[in-house]
Amino acid sequence: MPVTEFVTFRFKEPYTLDNEEVRSQFRKVAAWQSEWSNYPLTFYKSVEDSALLYLVSGWKDVDAHGEWIKSERNQNLLQIFDPILTIVDFVHLEMDFAVIPSDSQVLLFSEEEHNGSEQSIQDLGNLKGVKSWCGQGRAIEKPREYYFAAFRDTSYLTAIEKELASHWKILQRVYFE
What we know:
Layout: E1 3-11, H1 20-37, E2 42-46, E3 52-59, H2 62-70, H3 72-81, E4 85-93, E5 106-113, H4 119-126, E6 133-138, E7 144-151, H5 157-163, E8 169-174
Antiparallel strand pairs: 1-3, 1-4, 2-3, 2-8, 5-7, 5-8, 6-7
Helix pairs in contact: 1-3
């Protein structure tokens, strides 16, 4: 079953997205992992905390990702990134990465315990603006449900920030070209 990899990173001091060495290494990650998985990697920065970066990508299944993790290339990347960032959170979601619009510039997400209040779904229903996609995926590794909304342009950022409850995270697309 196709899954979505959803990873939260935190930059270590003094590294940031503005560092060209860091950007170069992320280009390498994107090329190597995409070649292995046949899925593009997308990156998003937190609007609220510039030290947080999110990786969103797809895999044929969890086992395919496990093979990549064990690979020499990935182990090399882990060594390169060790002084640059830490992994804050990592999950595989029961959600096909292909459903997320590839041209999304803003991605919202919220997480709740399984069988929670589903407040996130209610929030999305109340959100004004042109959403290009809404979806949800259950975390495979822990009892959490993740809710998403994608927007194709950033002009809604101010309105989104005003309308959403605090448990939502607002992410803006980052390109490393």
